[in-house]
Amino acid sequence: MDKKQHYFGLSIEGVLFSGSDVLAEKALAGGPITYESLKGALPPIERGRYCFLAGPSSWQGLIARPDGRVYPHGTLEGPNPPAMYDPYEGLPDAYAGEGGEGGDPRVSQGYEKGWIPVLTTVIKPRRRGGVGSGRDAGVGSGCDAEAGPAHAGAAEGGNAPPYPDLTVTCFVEFGETGHIPRLWVSQRYEGGGRGEMLRRVDGTPAAEGFFVVKAMAGGSRRRTVDEAEFEEARRATISEWVKLSEGFDRFRLPHVEIEAGLKAMAAGILSTFAGDHAHYGHHNYGHAEHDNFPPTYLYAVELFMTLGMLGRARELLSHMLRFCVGSDGRFHYRQGRGEVYGASASEYGRLFWLSSRLHTADPRRSLFAAPGRGGTENPSPGDGDGNPSVHGERLRFQGGGTDFMGVLLTMGGYLTGRITPDGSGSRALVRMCAEADNHSEVHAYAGNNLWAVRGLRALAGMAGRLGYACAPNIAGRAEALWHDLRSALDDERVPSPYGDLVPFRLGYPTLPISLSAGPYNIGDGRYAGPGGAQGGQSLHENTYANYRYYAEMLSSGLLRKGECDAIEAMRGALGGRLLGMTRLFGHLDDWPADNYARHYLESDVKDGYALLYFSHILFHGNLDTGVYYEQVTADGAAVAADCVPVTALAPLMTAWMFAYEPVDCGEVYLLRGVPGYWYGLGEAFGAEGLVCPSGRFSVSYEPAADPGGPPLERGHVKAIADASAECGPGSGYTGTGYKELNVRIKLRRTGASVTLCASLPGGDVKVYVDLPESDPDYLVASGAALRRTGVCGRYAIMG
Length: 799
Known about the structure:
Blueprint: H1 12-16, H2 22-29, H3 35-38, E1 51-53, E2 62-64, E3 70-71, E4 107-112, E5 116-123, H4 152-155, E6 165-171, E7 183-190, E8 209-216, E9 219-225, H5 227-245, E10 251-252, H6 256-272, H7 294-306, H8 310-323, E11 334-335, E12 340-341, H9 345-361, H10 393-396, H11 404-416, E13 419-421, E14 428-430, H12 446-466, H13 471-492, E15 494-496, E16 499-501, H14 539-555, H15 561-573, E17 577-578, E18 581-584, E19 587-588, H16 594-602, H17 606-619, E20 621-622, E21 627-632, E22 638-642, H18 644-658, E23 659-660, E24 667-670, E25 685-692, E26 695-703, E27 715-723, E28 740-748, E29 753-760, E30 763-770, E31 778-787, E32 796-798
Parallel strand pairs: 24-29, 27-28
Antiparallel strand pairs: 1-2, 2-3, 4-5, 5-6, 6-7, 7-8, 8-9, 10-25, 11-12, 13-14, 15-16, 17-18, 18-19, 20-21, 21-22, 23-24, 25-26, 26-27, 28-31, 29-30, 31-32
Helix pairs in contact: 6-18, 7-8, 7-9, 7-18, 9-12, 11-12, 12-13, 12-14, 14-16, 16-17
């Protein structure tokens, strides 16, 4: 697309400094948000893009640039880094790249089947002249650089063969474990008439064949292999990835490129981990100093749990609790020159909440045991002075295993030990850093405290179900924290043009001047704002609040609706969003954007959810390789490396479209996030085997053979639920809907109840399903129809 057509015809400067999300406004004014309607709104990521090659057990990945050169991990930070494999080495100038960072139209790349990390790069020569001399004979001879003859014989009317295309296929073997993986390479020349062998600039025949490249100190070493050995390794690698994909190949979407891209993202996350050991990403984010960053584990565990890969989720969580947590209950993650501990309180809370959800989803294979069955009773998560009650190594290892519940309880003790009174002594709040980048900023952040409340409640609930006597103590600490936090938020809440606004940090001005590098560049100092806005602000704090702190406040589910609405309205007016994506200074950074996605889904903000989903997929990375970068620019550059949290966003949002259980469990939304226009495309879509705490769900839509008729009769929705239903029913939504929602329900546990809330084009259909006390184990209603009775309330199981 012509660059003049980007930004919906606006200038990039006008977009970035307008304050409001003018691109979103234009997109919404054009009708429903669709994948096609957003294409071209921003330039694609071209500058600084790359993909990576690794296996699920590789310690590091190899970086493949768009020109086909491959580099070992950690070598790209310096100037002119040496390539581990260079397909252009010794070839005529006709194959040389065009330079610059904008990519080369002569080079195309693609993964096997669109997602398996077996990379094929095709390099077309710049000149199509003959190759008789072995050098670029057209250079300096007055010949046409693009189409003219390339040596004297051709210039005199000869018919020398043109340069062929260079095709390179390379991959890291599935079982590769090396610190710097070996690269398998197939290099061949195709087309262009092969009457004469392509020669290097020194006159020797250009290499064509199969080899393995291993990085060595100061260079690399090649070992030639025959075609049979190469093909055996390639086929085995593809086969193993296909087998592994059975766990994350969950979606059938109207957009096949998104479907393939989601599989590439899941495969990329699997190969970002070295077995169970996390790496944050690749490139400079693959360095070991980032490995214990808690969100890497938290996002991966939630993604694999949601995709039904419960075993994988447990493996990663158990590794984290074994090796990333000290015996004092503290995340062992340091960052910065001062080597300061950098975990936030919200990460502790999210760990407790996520652990509880994983335990609820699969209690029979849970990591967390009752006292006397592998768990150690911890009488208090912390004493009144804030010191955690720790049983030392007894909490960590019993009989060669790990007491995971003991680890969580000790972590709860560490977190409650950070609850300290304010200057007046009237309120006690969590005072910790809220972001690893800002580990020196230790304050009472609202998001930290909200997620501490949420996490401690979850920890207390799980401890109570397992029979720990300390559960009431933990619950009491959570409620005392919530009481003081709610009081503090009320005291510092201010009326604003956006509604009643609560602060992201207690004691900091509640109303920000700006949330990004525009519309007011307030700098990193402390400035008074225009129009009477409160002073004493820093752009650094404000933009991190937009990036993460407000996001976590919204996703906690503990703020009042009016307070949530005010935050969202303010973000839309003060430079917080761009085409729905999250702004950090002058960049786009969707690292914690899953928090905004949760809020949109739970608040039924369908346009906001669709805008974030499609914009992120189109403009925050490269869908063809599944590589999504932490930070990108609005003009198509990757400025921070790929990382697990950003890569996990699209697969998580896709799963939540079909089955989502809110932060407060008890109700499951089916199809709530599915874009409405999908129903009118005449294509089937759905998801299979998605896991919520209340169970495993499969949801599909099949269009009718005859697309005519009323909208509600154009297709058929089928939901299959295998629900653990440990939680009680929630309030949910009711309304008109399809005439019937065909389901197969399998509910575990006596006396349990779950609510299914299916969002369909005609409105929401709310379905209550109860399991009577008399049922010893399961209630199965195979092929039953849940019909609306005409009044709000319960639905009967028919058939």
